[in-house]
Amino acid sequence: MNAPNQSGWKPAMELSEDGMHNGPATTTGNRALMLEEPLLFEIGRVDVTGVDLPAIDPAAPTRLGGLARSEPIGLVGLTEPETVRHYTRLSRQNYGIDLGFFPLGSCTMKHNPRLNEKMARLPGFADIHPLAPQSTVQGALEVIHQLGGWLCTLTGMPAVAMSPKAGAHGELCGILAIRAAHEARGDAREVVLVPESAHGTNPATAAFANYRVEDIPATPEGRVDVAALKARLGPDVAAVMITNPNTCGLFEKDFREIADAVHAVGGYVYCDGANFNAIVGKVRPGDLGVDAMHINLHKTFSTPHGGGGPGSGPVVLSEALAPYAPLPFVRKDDAGTFYLVEEEDREERGPTFGRMTAFHGQMGMFTRALTYMLSHGADGLKQVAEDAVLNANYILRAMEDILHAPFAASGPCMHEALFGDKDFGGGLSTLDVAKGLIDEGYHPMTVYFPLVVHGAMLVEPTETESKAAIDQFVTAFRAVVERALAGDEALKQAPYYAPRRRLDETGAARKPKLAYEG
Amino acid sequence: MRYLPLTDTDRQAMLATIGAATVDDLFVDVPEVARLDGPIHGLPMHASEMAVERHMKALAAKNLVAGEVPFFLGAGAYRHHVPASVDTIIQRGEFLTAYTPYQPEIAQGTLQVLFEFQTQVARLYGCAVANASLYDGSTACWEAVAMATRVTKRKRAVLSGALHPHYAQVVKTMAHFTGDTIADAMPAITAEPDLDGLIARIDEDTACVVVQYPDILGRISDLTPVAEAAHAKGALLVVVNTEPVALGAIKSPGEMGADIVVGEGQSLGVGLQFGGPYLGLFAVRDPKHVRQMPGRLCGETTDAEGKRAFVLTLSTREQHIRREKATSNICTNSGLCALAFTVHMTLLGEKGLRELAADNHRLACLAADRLAKVPGVEVLNNSFFNEFTLMLGGKPAREIVRDLADRGVLGGVSLGRLYPGVEALEHALLVAVTETTTEEDIERLAQELEASIKETV
């Protein structure tokens, strides 16, 4: 949690001409604990290493086919103390959940339990090879089997594909299964329907699988326009991709009706399960007519986001799509032995659409997610969803009197609360509010997404925040919003206190500099 | 419920603020038929840290740990020593619990690491620009093919027969749906790869030719003629590398004219982990191709005070901006694995990577010489780095591998496992040797292999 600041200290709002704190410049450019750090290539040396290895014997015979490297690679090294310091100093320029409240909507930045880390590092999981004889990795196969089984139980679905490497890869898995199922009955369909509020990965995935993407409009209440959807359905529609709960933070209450209508015209229903954390233990997507849904283990099941991955995106599948699941997958025989079904097992593998990745998926994430599930259990997982939804509604109601909440009248939200930038003064925008929150010590919410709300601000507190932490956030959020409503010019220059001020992003794209030169 | 800070008093107070009587009132939009009452059946109840640890340790104990036996498996995943400080760094909460750096002012740590990572990968591959990572080598391989079809506006890819078969399968799976044509082949069991045959398959419709280096059998060959032949037909050369340590000893793909270089980065910093998470590397030799690249790119810029800073850039290629017109659907990539790679590579440096590569090669040469003395065994390769192919004199390699495991030796990957049902390949065994292999391990493999061959029909 962000502990309340009881020291009474507040930074002065008056800034010197250069926008800095008042105070003398330092020789180093550092400001006490705010430390600048050069690039590796400015401090590393070609002849330095932090690993003790045997010296190269230049006379040793080689069998490198005459292709021994003669030119320098261009790498530099540091000793261990220098390496640890370099990356530790860099780490301190990052915001993480461990530091404070991180309400990034749709991304589910919840606490990452450290037991998960410890278990994933057990040599029995971390130090085994994907192609080791199956008799020597029975425990690993059992982890995949057990986790997959529990994902089926939680979603009420009959089958699961475990190999997708992240959410978007899971979407691809589901869409390829849908295409394969249509192809199997000689039914070439061309269109996938996607709501405007969808994650960008949805249309990108459908397009990658060679479908034409068409938008489904939303109602003023922030849900799929069922009438418009039904009007568009026909024999050319392969599937709909609907996020539920959706990215406006609302449950699609007509999901079953939509699913039935899609099935009636021979289409399939893909559910983007990025927001499954809101309903785990409360609703089973299988009861809503879903044919395929990916589950982000790095969202619902607390595996760390790591500054951009790795994720893991298992996909649960309906009876209709299960035969097309990708290879390999794990089965258990009557004697209790676990085994992999691969390309060679012609009868058992079924009409699979093929292989999506070299090996069996994100084992390191499976062990973390299974550890988390065991920790929470059936009772705890349900509590997770309830607390996540409770925290989000608390924020929605604490803000709606001063911040435009376009769907607040639609009823309770699920795990995230959506706001817009209406009535901001002085040309101030959502971006300015986000940067103002950085100065207050928070990671901003998701901004400008979903696209259906002007200047969207999507706030997802998750269940791992205390009431005190949320109360303090609300106080800070309200203060920044009030400044935006009042047209406070100073907000346009925020953040003032972060390791960097606003960046020249246009310049970065106009003349891309993507590697160190020198 | 050690991960849930709300107390019942908090919950009641919050419900009162919201104006709801019970938490179920917040789920009112969920149709009643779909609502679950009571705990989910089929899952255990919550458990203490100690109890969970016991359960997970019991599962882990059912696996044979690579580090506890003589170990020779490779074929796209290699066991290297990872310095202790790598894991210490990646477990810092500021890295571990950060998100994709969408707010650059408070994500300079991740962003500067990505810039260093991109520079290291580009230089290792002999390229101009590398991206901020993809899922793994196999998916990076498909992304390279997809990019080549965009650049050349052609729809046919030629795969070398000596490309990792799982990589080839991933490419074929995807191409089936995109409508691209994949010309693949089986590997020829020969001392030298058949590059002339590969070149002969390149035609005017070819978008790219995909070659692994070192190849699936461990062979190393000069790809310059393939690059020239591809370029002469207007095609791109995609080079796949599954063992980045090799590039500390042999020429970079970029030096030989590769246009796109992709690979698996798992060898450095990441570990075996039963196949994932791994680290997809992706680079291009010519900067003009940057705007067709998939995935995130980190670039240098300045902030409002003129200080150097880093930011995700050229996002107009990506799904969150371009949606159905994006160059890839990838969002989350392998950020933390990229950090592990970067820290490991920083510890090694130019000097350490070259020494590590030399040590791998030295031990592999020792192993090849010793194993060649096992009656009935021949080393196929003329050239190799740290992995080579053994011919087992007509004995089935798959059974030998299983038998070796029963004898407490993880002896390699049989081609029978990688190419099931292909008779011509079932007597070949891939053996990988790294700095973690001891001379005693090699001797033990030689002796057990000799015994196993004698006893296997």
Quick structural gist:
Chain A: Residues 185-306 form the Aminotransferase class V domain. Chain A: It holds the Pfam family GcvP2_C. The complex is a heterodimer of chains A (518) and B (457). Chain A has helices at residues 40-43, 80-91, 114-120, 123-126, 138-155, 167-184, 201-208, 226-232, 255-264, 346-349, 363-399, 430-439, 467-485, 505-510, and strands at 159-161, 191-195, 212-216, 237-243, 268-272, 292-294, 315-317, 329-332, 338-341, 417-419, 446-447, 457-459.
Order of helices and strands of chain B: HHHHHEHEHEHEHEEEEEHHEEHEHEH
The CATH homologous superfamily of the largest domain in chain B is termed Type I PLP-dependent aspartate aminotransferase-like (Major domain)
Biggest sheet, spatial arrangement of strands of chain B: 1-7-6-5-4-2-3
The end-to-end distance of chain A, rounded to whole angstroms, is: 43 Å
Tell me the name of the CATH class of the largest domain in chain B. Answer: Alpha Beta
**The CATH C-level class name of the domain at 116-370 in chain A:** Alpha Beta
